[in-house]
Amino acid sequence: MIRRAARDWLMRRRVYLAPLALVALGLLGMVSGTGPVFRIFCAGVAVLGAILAVAFRQQEVLRRGGAAPGVVEIDEARITYLSAQGGQVVDRDGLWAVTLLIRPTGAVWVLDHEAGPFLEVPLSASGAEGLAALIEALPRVELARARAALEAGETGAHLVWKASP
Description:
By secondary structure, the chain is α+β, with helices and mostly antiparallel strands. The chain has helices at 4-12, 14-32, 36-63, 128-136, 144-152, and strands at residues 68-75, 78-83, 86-91, 95-103, 106-113, 119-122, 125-126, 156-162. Helices cover 45% and strands 30% of the residues.
């Protein structure tokens, strides 16, 4: 009996609606309650609802499917990836292998280089399209199989480029 658009809107925001309902009930009880003990209890319910709303919001951000965490910056031949877990700088000339790793949780570029441990950059990170353009410019790059695997949803590692000895 509810419109489809309204139902979809409510379903997308249900994570926030339950805690906000607790806040509203707590505030209503504080205003209309009789006695200090009941008002203190209602204040606690309102605070609990606010804490839950903040916690659910943080979980929602982590589960968002749109964009992966981190930022990729390309400055001439230098690749910089920064994220909340840290960051790394890789020179294009120091690369010796590029792999597209497709996981059920998402795909990442794996950059093996001579300067340190490999670097994993999510395909959906901000600025990752510049990294894809840099990889396409490498000599003898083989992106066709990796793209086909990505479109087909095949999980696993797909070697895209390897430096010649």
